[in-house]
Structures are given as structure tokens and as C-alpha cells.
Design a protein that fits this description.
Blueprint (H helix, E strand, L loop, with lengths): L17 E16 L2 E14 L5 E3 L13 H11 L4 H8 L3 H15 L10 E9 L4 E8 L5 E6 L7 H9 L6 E4 L3 H10 L4 E4 L1 H22 L3 H8 L2 H5 L8 H7 L3
Parallel strand pairs: 4-7, 7-8
Antiparallel strand pairs: 1-2, 2-3, 4-5, 5-6
Amino acid sequence: MQAKERIRFCPSCGARSIVKNWYRLRNFVGFPIGGKRVTIRMKVQRYKCKECDFDQQEKIPFATGSCSYTHRFAKYVVDLLRGMTILDVSNHLSVSWDTIKEIHSSYLKRHYSPPSLDGVENIGIDEFAVRKGHVYKTIVVDLDSGRIIYVDDGKGSEALNKFWRKVKRKNIKIKHVATDLSAAFIASVMENCPDAVHVFNYFHVVKLMNEKLDDIRRKIHSLEKDINKRKVLKGTRYLLLGNSADIFDNSTRQGLRMP
């Protein structure tokens, strides 16, 4: 089998001085037919530039570079790996474990490589626990598209160092950053993104306010000597921490009224 595309200009110097420089026989694992392994053998022509001594083989339309398998075979392997292990696929196709692993690694690299930060302006930073809270990871999300654009181990400011370096290297202009009230996140944003509007997560702000209001209620309750007033304070936790619109309800006002 011969590849049809021929190199006419030197990819290195651009000169039109390319000549044939012998050939080599190459074998490629093809898509199996009838459950049998298929091997494609072809002459691969090499070309050399007389001006700069650049040497390169002709392009092969059905395989990439020095890979010993066809594109169609690689796609078939990836489909099998969705329900089988690498070893199972290797035994099933009578192909080495290393070849199957190479196909799988190449697929993962193409489809799950670090996402681009181009056009990212609004981000959210958060942390989550792995394995019952013993291991933490920090995550950055593009709030406009919902894409996960960064994940790293840890939950402190150090977990974001690689992300900020990438932002600076790509000259990305972040306009808004949303985080919780973590001191580490606040310090990290102030240091690396001082011009962005820092927005705190609504849930955490309300949670902090509720905790402070509840703390005040407990302190007043402990200081109050009147038993009836202490009963009122004790029973108003839900009313005080509820929706502010409820306070204007007649029954709510009556419940908050001291005897």
C-alpha cells in the first residue's frame, strides 16, 4: 500500500529541493475483520532536503506519526475500553498491553487536557472534601459557561498558585470572583486579582449572619432575669432567623412582642 500525499516543499527551509531518500517497510494494526487481527504493511517513503538536510517520511492518511496502528483501530479500542479493562482489550485483540495503554492515554490527553482560559472573566472558587473529609481539593469554575477550568489538591491559597500563574501567563483579565468566606481564598484573590470584584457566596453570608444573630439571642437570654421574657427569647429563634418579610406579619409581631 502506498500513501498518496508527497512532500514537495521542505517544511524546514521552504526550498523546493526535496528528493526521495529511500523507504522503509512499516506494519500497522488495522480494524479486525471477522474477529481476526489485521496487519497492514506498506512502503513508507522518506524525503530529504538537499539544501538543509531535513529528513522526513511522507504523511500517512490513516495513522499518526510513528504509531503502529490505524485511526480506525484506535477508535475501536477506545470504544472497547468503555466496558473492559486494558488487559482484557489487549487479550481480546492480541495486541500488547503497552499499545492499548498508549491509545487510551492519547485519547485522554486529547479530550481531557487542561481547558483553555480564553474569554474567562467571571470565576467561582470553592473546595470540596474527598474520602470523608481527610483529603481536600480546590476547584475553579467559569461562571459564564459552567466549565471546570482548574482543580488541584489542598484547600489553602497554595492550591491556587498554579491557576494564578496560568492567568498571568495568558494575560487573562478576571472581572468577578465568587468565593466563600475562607481567609485563604480572600487573601489569594486580593494578592493575585486585586482589580476584580470579589463576591461572597450568599449561603455563607447568610449562615454567618444567622450564627451572629443566634449568638446575640443566647447572650440576651442568659442576661435576662424575667422568666416570661426569657421564654419569649427562647422561642423566637425561628422567627428571628426566618424570612425578613415574615416579621411584618401580625402573628409574627405578636410572637416577638415582650409581655
